[in-house]
Design goal:
single chain, 258 residues, alpha+beta, Deoxyribonuclease I, Chain A, 6-stranded mixed beta sheet, 12 strands, manganese, DNA binding
């Protein structure tokens, strides 16, 4: 099963790019973030015409997450949003079961400017995610937690790390929380496959970042122990970042043995 994650940076603005990528790579499951559209504005018909069933958790102008499953795969939504902050109206998490695998699609808060309220929210959100992640591990099922984590795990995951030390994506407390999450028993799939390689998934629109390969690795796959040994392959569709009117993220994908 091929599972992909892609921060589309506006599903309607980038719809031609999304459909071209789906046709080219044909993932079995695609987790999308930053839809920037309310539920009624999700291009459901175009997604269905591309051969996918979708569930989504939209929000006007900001955020939004979706899970697309190739026709023929059953998708059962099992949750949206994270417990622990009832007044939180930001659409950042959706969860479903596909082929006996629980898939959580997430868009973690950016947290900038930091320090400040946005970083505080990010840290609370990470705590809530960690609680849900532990519940999933304790349920003893196969789980994939994927999406835009807005976390640069190590200096290896960023071009010129010295420029990022005060950024909310790279601050010590953010990285510590991410590493504590992984330490519950999760596997960082891309790093397992490529432990030493320079791999980026995000390239800013400014300063020719993509052309210079000056990026960040912030889109991650965390696998539960059930899936670690089933991981066959994975990578980043970097060329998609070079398409016209594309997102500032590149799609990331893994392949799991059935």
């Amino acid at each position: 099963m091929r599972i992909a994650t892609y921060n589309v940076n506006g599903i309607n603005a980038r719809l031609p790019v999304l459909l071209k990528w789906l046709e080219e790579t044909k993932p079995d499951v695609a987790c999308l973030q930053e839809l920037k559209a309310p539920d009624e504005k999700i291009p459901k018909q175009e997604i269905e015409n591309a051969g996918y069933t979708a569930i989504w958790h939209g929000q006007k102008r900001w955020n939004g997450v979706a899970i697309l499953a190739k026709n023929g795969l059953e998708i059962e939504e099992t949750g949206r949003g994270l417990a622990g902050e009832p007044e939180d109206e930001q659409s950042r998490y959706i969860e479903a079961v596909i082929n006996d695998t629980t898939i959580g699609c997430l868009y973690l808060p950016n947290g900038n400017p930091a320090p400040g309220p946005k970083l505080d929210y990010k840290m609370r959100w990470l705590q809530r995610l960690s609680k849900r992640a532990k519940e999933l591990l304790d349920s003893d099922v196969a789980v994939v937690l994927t999406g835009d984590y807005n976390v640069i795990p190590t200096e290896k995951d960023v071009y010129k790390p010295e420029r990022w030390f005060d950024d909310a994506l790279f601050r010590p407390e953010v990285r510590k929380a991410f590493h504590e999450l992984v330490a519950q028993g999760w596997t960082d799939a891309i790093r397992k496959l490529y432990p030493e390689e320079t791999i980026y998934t995000f390239f800013d629109y400014f300063r020719n970042a993509y052309q210079r390969n000056a990026g960040l690795r912030i889109d991650h796959f965390l696998l539960s122990p059930h899936l670690t040994n089933k991981l066959k392959d994975g990578g980043v569709d970097n060329h998609v970042r070079g398409w016209e009117k594309t997102s500032d993220h590149a799609p990331v994908w893994i392949e799991l043995e059935e």
